[in-house]
Amino acid sequence: MRVLELLEEIEEIVDTAAGFPLTGKIMVDSQELLEIVREIRAELPDEIQQAQWIKNERERIIAEARTQYEAVIEDAQKQADALVENNDITVKAKLRADELMRVTENTAKQLKIGTYDYLDSILYSFQGKMEHLSSIYFGEMFTSIEKAFDDINSALAANRDELKDMAYRTQMDADDIPAPSAESEEEDQ
Q: Which of 101, 109, 111, 137 has CB atoms 3.0–4.6 Å from 7's, for a disulfide?
């Protein structure tokens, strides 16, 4: 599965990234990580297509069950019409037709219930797999990315504070230099 390979690539980037001494922070190429995330997004439609296939398969099974149900009903009706010719046979035929209808309806219900159970088990399994993938890979990936961004922001803030401190010291040093006196200005002229 291509998504898993891409997630492993992100793990490798994080594992092999250069670290900042004594901070536990690492430096990674954000463009490279973003490109991998884009590739993961491109691969996800395959998983969605599998879910669509399951939905289509469910609809096909239900349609097939409905067709079988209607065929059995039609067959029972034909048998009942043929037996109408004789009154004694007609009574027996009606009883038999009613029995066939009950059997047919029970069979159709059982087929529907079996279909629903089958589809539910497939969807449940797929849902479990998606939750497992999400909890293992996406949680770690987004946590790692979020940590990387937090580390970068912290480093930038520390650098800005250092620059502000240096500017302040430079300003203070400039204020300590005495202003040129009038005599030194005349000597310069």
A: 137
